[in-house]
Amino acid sequence: MPITIEHGRVIDPAEQVDRVTSLRIADGRIVGLDLPPEPGDEVIDASGRIVCPGLIDMHVHLREPGREEDETIATGTAAALAGGFTSIACIPNTEPPIDTQGTVEFVRGQAARAGNCNVFVVACVSKNREGTELSEIGQLVEAGAVAFTDDGSPVSDPELMRRAFEYCQMFDKPVLNHSEIRELTEHGVMHEGLTSLELGLTGMPSAAEDVMASRDIALAEATGGRFHLMHVSTAGSVDAVRRAKRRGVRVSTEVCPHHFTLTDESLRTFDSNYKMNPPLRGREDVLACIDGLRDGTIDCIVTDHAPHAKEKKMQELDRAPFGIIGLETAVGLVVTQLIQAGALDWPAAIEKMTINPARVLGIDRGTLRPGAVADVTIIDPECRWTVDPHEFRSKSSNSPFIGWELTGRAETVIVAGEVKFRR
Ligand SMILES: [Zn+2]
Ligand SMILES: [Zn+2]
């Protein structure tokens, strides 16, 4: 059924639209703005709401195949919808990893069966994520892979990274790296600094990220390849990206809500829901991330949604796995920590969750341009709510934000013209 969304503040950064008007959808596509409903349309009153392109999270761990006790493609995509996301890109550190055409097709098939949001597949840089031999990039692109990463692990070997840039460039695909010098972070559980020293916990220094981010920038510059720095967390690597962009290097980056919200001080609780990789950093790093968002150095906001079943995360800090879920709290944290705090305005925030990730991945999404696929998110910007794990659609509830009071939440989520979620 065609839909007309009326009286909302329509924000489409790709088209420089920001005004109160109507948006009409028919046959799964955007018809246009400023149109009255036609007879037979479903009419959605969006007074006081933000109407924007469907949100895109380009960094999600769906866990299936192999770790269905943590998350499945069905539960992860349901969590994405509840968080306002119409598209996600899934990271290939599954078991087996997504390094063959067959696994790419399996994930796409499961996503289609789940029928929630769009799932774009990121495939492995190296075979079996072992970091030694390049995967079959061309075949994986043919199967639908939109980008390449070994996330969960860095691509440590610089020669492999260089060849990844060269190969991926032939298909105009970006290489996404979890940039971390592993030799510098061995046995680390948190950021290395005064707090780790006081707590007597093994630290992971900022230099581990800074050094590899700079290496990857240098290799991208040398090859002409496209580098996307995943989950930026240090002042040093934000600045390295800023300077590289000025030189015209093809580099982009992303930040997670926890890295612009929390610091390493949180580890004083010894709660493993504050354990992630990269770790929560110092105050000056948090401020550098916010500055990077503000001046456009940081292109995208992503969740790095990393579900872990309770029994895994409920271990001592040094044994618990890294990572937290993020799909269902991202919008609330963006609104509360960035928009209400005056760091970003609505169009800038939405740009980093729609057209910018779409451009990095080269996917035909992220805009409300007439003729585009009708993926639309309606956000209640004033809604105050408390993060309640019982409401999570995710199979896991490893979040440090449980009990937080946030402002802003997705209310209605439309995928290809169909209402897939309504609160
Ligand atoms: Zn990572
Ligand atoms: Zn990740």
Radius of gyration: 20 Å
* Helix/strand structural class: alpha/beta
Report on the biggest sheet.
Answer: 8 strands, mixed
Distance between the termini: 20 Å
The geometry reads as globular
Q: Portion of residues in helices?
A: 25-40%
Mean pLDDT: 98
**Total DSSP E strands:** 18
Give unreliable regions as ranges: none
Task: Assess the beta-strand content as a share of residues.
Answer: 15-25%
Small-molecule binders here are: zinc ion
Count of discrete alpha- or pi-helical segments spanning 4 or more residues: 13
How would you characterize this protein structure?
The chain is of the alpha/beta class and 423 residues long. The chain has helices at 73-82, 101-114, 137-143, 158-170, 194-199, 206-223, 235-246, 257-261, 283-294, 310-313, 330-339, 346-351, 355-361; strands at 3-12, 17-26, 29-33, 42-45, 50-53, 55-60, 85-90, 118-123, 147-149, 175-177, 190-191, 203-204, 227-229, 251-255, 300-301, 376-386, 405-415, 418-422. The strands form 3 sheets. Strands 1, 2, 3, 4, 5, 16, 17 and 18 form an 8-stranded mixed β-sheet that branches. Helix 1 (73-82) links the parallel strand 6 and strand 7. Helix 1 (73-82) packs across helix 2, helix 2 (101-114) runs parallel beside helix 3 and helix 4 packs across helix 6 (206-223). The longest helix is centred in the middle third of the chain and has 18 residues, at 206-223. The structure holds zinc ion (2 copies). One zinc ion binds at residues 151, 178, 230-231.
